[in-house]
Specification:
12 helices; binds 2-phosphoglycolic acid; alpha/beta; TIM Barrel; globular; 8-stranded parallel beta barrel
Length: 255
């Protein structure tokens, strides 16, 4: 049993329409108690954040998050969304450095680092994603890749800032593929990440940081992941689009 509150976040990616976003959020809100002690976060597309906020209602235990943001707080950045705008709509979390952002939109560790600092400065909690590709895993480079990503993405953060963030370990080969990392494969990398956080701050700070696993998490594999000592929740893509599946996963991480 961990002393960290587990956290399960739904990354809806570029899916749903406004009515479906509202209905899904309402369904999750109505059944939030099923998650037990697990903290729930919904990360809709930015244009539906306000719709989801309204569906959750003012005092909902379900938190809101975004999937990305710019690192500047305003300015001539056509098409971008600024951290204070997300805060304004009620977001508390923001996913940063998701592998789709890294591979499809060229986000480097330096970019993720700038965004992470900006999120913290704005008062948002970043969910910072890291993870190796299949080629990197098969080449025995998982630890090296994850180490570089963690150290680069979190460079220069104070211990106080590090304590606030959430890290998501998402092996790229497990995202949307139906291939989940085995609980031991995931635990091994989670322990590595916690060790790296200890090096960046202190073991006491690292012990407070919640580290989510992501990549084909489903209700039927969540329980085996949840019992691992360094897995503190999940970042869920596909299965977060169904209230039953999302809450089933959250329940597996809760008590
Ligand atoms: P998946 O996506 O659950 O569909 O594998 C996870 C993610 O990309 O965050």
């Amino acid at each position: 049993m961990t002393h960290r509150r587990t956290i399960v976040a739904g990354n809806w990616k570029m899916n749903l329409d406004r009515a479906k976003a509202r209905d899904l959020a309402a369904a999750v809100a109505a059944r939030a108690a099923e998650a037990g002690t697990t903290e729930l976060v919904l990360c809709p597309p930015a244009v539906y954040v306000e719709t989801v906020a309204a569906a959750l209602g003012g005092s909902s235990p379900v938190a809101l998050g975004a999937q990305n943001m710019h690192d500047h707080s305003s300015g001539a950045f056509t098409g971008e969304v600024a951290p204070p705008m997300l805060l304004d709509l009620g977001c508390r979390y923001v996913i940063l450095g998701h592998s789709e952002r890294r591979t499809l939109f060229g986000e480097t560790d330096a970019v993720v680092n700038a965004k992470t600092r900006a999120a913290l400065a704005a008062g948002l909690t970043p969910i910072v994603c890291v993870g190796e590709t299949l080629e990197e895993r098969e080449g025995g480079r998982t630890a090296a890749v994850v180490t570089t990503q963690v150290q680069g993405s979190l460079a220069g953060l104070t211990p106080t800032d590090l304590e606030k963030i959430v890290v998501a370990y998402e092996p790229v080969w497990a995202i949307g593929t139906g291939k989940v990392a085995t609980p031991l494969q995931a635990q091994e990398v989670h322990a590595l990440i916690r060790g790296l956080l200890g090096g960046l701050a202190s073991p006491a700070v690292a012990a407070k940081v919640r580290i989510q696993y992501g990549g084909s998490v489903k209700p039927d594999n969540a329980a085996d992941l949840a019992v691992q000592p360094d897995i503190d929740g999940a970042l869920v893509g596909g299965a977060s689009l169904k209230a039953d599946d999302f809450l089933g996963i959250a329940k597996a991480f809760g008590v």
